UniProtKB/TrEMBL annotation:
Keywords: Endonuclease, Hydrolase, Magnesium, Metal-binding, Nuclease. Its cofactor is Mg(2+). One of its GO terms (molecular function) is magnesium ion binding. Its EC number is 3.1.26.4. This is Ribonuclease H. It is an enzyme of class 3 (hydrolase). Endonuclease that specifically degrades the RNA of RNA-DNA hybrids. It catalyses: Endonucleolytic cleavage to 5'-phosphomonoester. It comes from Shewanella livingstonensis. The lineage of its organism: Bacteria, Pseudomonadati, Pseudomonadota, Gammaproteobacteria, Alteromonadales.
Length: 262
């Protein structure tokens, strides 16, 4: 029997699964569950990056992600459980967690990312200290750095997903930026905060959105990658590190997680 890939947009867990038994547990008797099977992993990933309405009832590969589909990626899906996060780690060659912190807000800010390859932590990065920053700016900076890494991963022919716990950052880069750009980067309600970094991040995202999954992850629920990126953002503040550098100390996960949170 040919292997199938099951996309679950709405269920007890969301994501892409290769087992019908796992998929059934996620959707069985779940109110308004939304799911569908696909013949190839590429079809499943493209479908998961869009709203379920774009795929349910269709067998063809979904069209390239555009404004409507990016909204679904940012706002319509979220990794909220440890098992759902583990599914993501098993589905992509590289998973990048991005986070920013600020103490107080506004105040001292920093950013961090954690990179997993084949499900294993391989790199931690930190920096972009700003003595007069905001949490939103720090989150956007982290997302931008993750996009830079994702571009390299895609160029190497590997699959990649970025996880951010900032709905604001995701929506700025993947959704709102399209409208702002169409109006020459203006909006009726006034100045667009953090415009420079939004422009840079959006340009990167828009160029590779058909090869990238960018998803929200619930913060501080014990998802290791998100927690480690958080600790790196605070490490950046403590070190007042203005560059963005790879963490070179021993990667003792338990020791790093024991550091204070942002």
């Amino acid at each position: 029997m040919a292997k199938k890939f099951y996309v679950v947009w709405a269920g007890r867990e969301t994501g892409i699964f290769t087992s019908w038994d796992v998929t059934k547990r996620a959707v069985d008797k779940y109110p308004q569950a939304k799911y569908k099977s696909f013949a190839t992993q590429a079809e499943a990933k493209a479908a998961f990056a869009q709203s379920p309405a774009s795929s349910i009832g269709k067998s063809a590969l979904p069209k390239a992600a555009g404004r409507s589909s990016t909204k679904a990626v940012g706002a319509g899906t979220s990794t909220k459980t440890l098992s759902a996060n583990q599914a993501v780690l098993s589905q992509f060659d590289v998973v990048i967690y991005a986070d920013g912190g600020c103490e107080p807000n506004p105040g001292k800010a920093g950013s961090g990312i954690a990179i997993y390859r084949k499900g294993e932590l391989t790199e931690l990065w930190f920096g972009l200290f700003n003595p007069n920053g905001t949490n939103n700016t720090a989150e956007l900076n982290a997302l931008y750095q993750a996009l830079i890494v994702a571009k390299q991963v895609i160029a190497a022919g590997e699959t990649v997903q970025i996880m951010s716990d900032s709905q604001y950052s995701i929506k700025c880069v993947c959704e709102w930026a399209y409208g702002w750009k169409a109006k020459n980067w203006t909006r009726k309600t006034g100045e667009i905060a953090n415009l420079d970094i939004i422009k840079q991040a959006h340009e990167l995202y828009d160029a590779m959105k058909t090869d990238l999954v960018l998803q929200h992850v619930a913060a501080h629920i014990g998802i290791e990658g998100n927690e480690l990126a958080d600790r790196m953002s605070i490490h950046a503040i403590e070190q007042q590190h203005k560059g963005f550098s790879q963490f070179t100390g021993p990667i003792d996960i338990n020791k790093i997680l024991a550091l204070r949170t942002g």
